[in-house]
Design brief:
With about 80 residues, this protein is of the alpha+beta class. The chain has one domain. The protein is built from 3 helices and 4 strands. Strands 3-2-1-4 form a 4-stranded antiparallel β-sheet, with no helix packed on it. The longest helix is centred in the N-terminal third of the chain and has 10 residues.
Length: about 80
């Protein structure tokens, strides 16, 4: 694994993040954005397929917890996430 990616993954688990659920339209599915405290996009994934994206940023072990929050989150709202 690349050193920069490993550092990013370790930092993600100690920082504040924000979850935004985006409503799809017509044939475009619903998506989730995961952003850091500076609102930089960390992950962008379909609500029904989060695993690969969360694994990629080192949050695969938190997928059930994150998706539980996403299910309850109304579209267009921002939720602060502290892991």
């Amino acid at each position: 694994m690349d050193h920069g990616l490993l550092t990013t993954m370790l930092n993600l688990q100690q920082r504040k993040m924000y979850i935004i659920k985006v409503k799809g339209v017509a044939k475009i599915p619903d998506y989730v954005q995961l952003r850091d405290e500076k609102f930089t996009l960390l992950a962008y994934f379909r609500v029904d397929r989060p695993e690969k994206s969360l694994e990629k940023i080192g949050l695969g072990d938190k997928a059930d917890y994150i998706m539980g929050l996403v299910e309850k989150l109304p579209f267009g709202k921002i939720l602060k996430l502290e892991l």
